[in-house]
Design brief:
about 100 residues, elongated, about 0% strand, about 80% helix, 4 helices
Length: about 100
């Protein structure tokens, strides 16, 4: 059963209020695991008509605290992690690879 707009608003407000506590109790990936579980619990109970709106509201709640949306955080983390691998792949492709 889908949440009503009023219920969605209540859950989003609760999620927004939980961010400072989640930040103080969790670091890095632990924050995202906890936050995304809570956000997904809301998104799992909204109709497709409200899904994008709810997602945007979740990102807005993060932005209030200066936090980029999770996809941007994940992509940035992956890009940083891949840098050594990319450099190694480029050296290997150029024939300058030494183990």
């Amino acid at each position: 059963m889908f949440l009503t707009v009023e219920q969605i608003e209540q859950r989003l407000a609760e999620l927004g209020r939980s961010i400072p506590r989640l930040l103080s109790e969790n670091e890095g990936a632990e924050f995202w695991i906890e936050f995304l579980e809570r956000a997904d619990a809301i998104k799992d109970h909204v109709s497709l008509d409200h899904y994008d709106w709810v997602t945007e509201r979740i990102y807005e709640a993060l932005a209030i605290y200066g936090i980029a949306a999770p996809s941007r955080w994940i992509l940035a983390t992956l890009a940083e992690a891949e840098q050594p691998q990319i450099a190694t792949a480029k050296r290997a492709a150029s024939g300058k690879f030494t183990a």
